[in-house]
Amino acid sequence: MSDQLNEKMTKILDHMRAGGLIIVADSPQRESEGDMIGLAEKVTPETVNMMISKARGLLCVPMSKDYADRMQLAPIETGSNDTFGTAFTLSVDATETTTGISAFDRAKTIKKLADPSSKWDDFYHPGHVFPLVAKEGGVLERTGHTEASLDLARLAGVAPVGFICECIKKDGTMARRKDLKALAEGLGIPYLTIEELIEYRKGQENKDLDIEAFAQVDFPTKYGHFMLEGFRDKKHPDKEPTLLISKGKVKPGEPLLLRLHSECLTGDVFSSKRCDCGAQLAEALTKIEANGSGAVLYLRQEGRGIGLENKLRAYQLQDEGMNTVEANQHLGLPVDARRYNIAAEILRQKGISEIELMTNNPDKVDQLEGYGIKVVKRLPVEVGLTAENKRYLTTKKHEMNHILNEVD
């Protein structure tokens, strides 16, 4: 994370704690649209009026799941046509409001939604304010404005509730990035992108890492004889451990032959032909055995970080005609949510600063180097194009920038 971004975020969070609004633009790969965002705990009639008069979209109130559960705000089923999976609940008005629609009444409702003691009976149902339930992982789980507002509230140290409104131009069309920047400048408020917020969140996570080894065992396999070591996150002991499968010793001054492999139950365990994951893992272990030294870091990031349940939902959409990128986007999920900060920390603990990385994915190289691990060589892991995985690999090459010479 750059010093410039750190300084920018510090100013933004101070501005929001003081009750100010900001404009947040999402990715051009998603909608390339923007929302005006504020902290619900700091809402005023004036900021609500600014939103509805200058942003002009639907005013909503994103919140954490525990806040929504306490107020019994269950998500409404929106059906499969809701492309980005926005988790609306039944609309509400605070019981002390009158019409519920004025800026003053909506500010009262938003403030009540941010109150940690509020309950179901404090609201009329339905009403004029639309709560949303954000994904707990924030923008690292779903790259939407709902999650951005939750992250900003948590980073500001206030109640995990925001209020947001889509930005629409005077002619009624959606404001895009150039319009959003101009609007922010005209109103004198900060402008932020989802990508910047993701980068900042990753930087904050790195500061909070506390990884320790807890077991090392002899590990003979059909691919060769290795050592298996487990690493746990002391701050999140409920998370599955990261595994280091290694052979030989690290020689000073020599880069480590390494594969970063994200867990794929269907490919690694059941040898699914829909992907190339299981074959890549086998190829990496075979190469390490032949080399006499090297390692696989086995990362618990099923489905490129979206989890097994969402991966199966994405598979179902692929069976209906979508590719792997379109399926994730339809579910409102990142195309690739994987992060490699834990891998970099384990390598540092092992005294490893340089590696030869077995991967087809340039993002792994970029992330590791961003975390201070030098990738001196990238080694391809192309394990065969088949009728079953052709579309998957073609999508990875042309839409995710993977380097795959076996794909036309």
UniProtKB/TrEMBL annotation:
Its EC number is 3.5.4.25, 4.1.99.12. Residues 215-380 form the GTP cyclohydrolase II domain. Binds 2 divalent metal cations per subunit. Magnesium or manganese. Its cofactor is Mg(2+); Mn(2+); Zn(2+). The active site is at residues 336, 338. Zn(2+) binds at residues 264, 275, 277. It catalyses: GTP + 4 H2O = 2,5-diamino-6-hydroxy-4-(5-phosphoribosylamino)-pyrimidine + formate + 2 phosphate + 3 H(+); D-ribulose 5-phosphate = (2S)-2-hydroxy-3-oxobutyl phosphate + formate + H(+). Homodimer. HAMAP family: RibA (MF_00179), RibB (MF_00180). This is Multifunctional fusion protein. The lineage of its organism: Bacteria, Bacillati, Bacillota, Bacilli, Lactobacillales. The gene is ribBA.
